[in-house]
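Example record

The entry below shows one chain as it appears in the dataset: sequence first, then structure tokens.
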Amino acid sequence: MDNDVSNYSVIGRIGEGAHGLVFKAQHLPTGRYVALKKILIKNIEDGIPVNVMREIKALQLLRCKYVIKLYNMFPRGMSLVLVLEYMTGGLWDMLHHNQQELTLPRVKTYVQMLLKGIRYMHAHYVMHRDLKPANLLINHEGILKIADLGLARLYWPDGGRPYSHQVATRWYRAPELLYGARFYTEKVDLWSVGCIIAELITKQPLFAGESDIEQLAIVLRHLGTPTEESWPGHTDLPDFHKISFPESTGTPWPELLPGADPDAINLVKFFVLYDDKKRQSAKEALKHHWFKIRPLPASLQEMPKPQLNAHKQK
């Protein structure tokens, strides 16, 4: 797809991201609808913001059916314009505003798509670091795609490199990040996946804190006070000794996920673990029994088609 701005006809504004506005447009030579993400470069001397560069590099590397596509990019005055795949809806809208019922077969299909996208990203050593329903978009065919890779980073399997702990939206942030960990792995994504699956099943966030301290308190109260056996090395995390919480034996999982069947609970438990080394990989999770028992995942033809402009594409 070319980078001549005159070949794009802007139809309307569809959202606002961290670094600029997003517009729906049509690529006139092909008739294809696209999303134009216009990023203002505030200071030319400072160059393109690092998060934008990371997003561009990640999208250039990742070519997967379940990751949003970057078609092109070009300068426009004091801005950089990213030409992205146009997505007609999002998982957040499905949870909060869509009139079509989010049935269990559909939930299983969305979870499969999410896991396939994460499996691909992790196979290419990219961690997303901000998985949440608002960053999981859906196209006109009903296919879920991972979007908003502004916090994505390449990682090395042997670890040893520090990263910022100020990543991931609070409700989906792994406990090691809440305790200020600088050395962590792609398993932070898998904690987020577990929280998303739980939310799709119950239609409520699994852990919904109003602050970072409250978030950690809620996690500890529901999962129980960690021990050296359940979370080796947690007492060595940077912020562990800054605050203490009441002792807790935890909340039974059927109470945490009311109405969920045992297999669904079992799948969520494989991700929502203190010890990141024990969190199941996306590749392993795709083999889970939950996907093989009735009701089975829906076919693509049965998936709800989002309403146009029903989301904020970031």
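Notes for this example: The mean pLDDT is 92. The chain has two domains: 5-85, 89-301.
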